[in-house]
Amino acid sequence: MTSSAMFSIAYFLLLVPLYLHMRYRQAKKHNRFIYLRTELVLASLFIYTNVLLYLTVFPNRFSAPRDQVSVNLMPLQSIYQNLHAYHHGYPNLVFLNLAGNILLFVPLGFFLYQAFRTMRWQKAVLGGFLLSTIIELLQWMFSQSGIITRSSDIDDILLNTLGTALGCIVYQIYRKRKEKFE
What we know:
This protein is mainly α.
């Protein structure tokens, strides 16, 4: 087992119980009833966000070689390049970059919209946009300092935000179907 995998396991073995303990203390302090469904959704959101940060900010096998680290501030440039690569026989690159960036954030839209039922979908999408922007800024800062070798791309922010919006839509469909069968 790699040291990265060992760190991941230790991180979650420590972090999840700590999170659950904090939620329990907060509920007890404010004399609130604990709803299992709500706590499961919030715990899922917490775990998902930590996994997302782990996958996107920390070094991993998807990290680029040092000489290939770049910053793209031109909207749609890398999307266009990926579509061009697809038409020239590189479908895996397109799936990994375009679909991966979208799919990575679908759970965020789903969990945000579900966890905070009074939240409008626009705020959930804004949350996805802000989290994606923070991730890209961290990737840039850590790449500049030599900690990781990751490229920063404005198109990742666009695709991640689209993924968050799709997650909101998936939750709305799920909720309507659930209400239909109740």
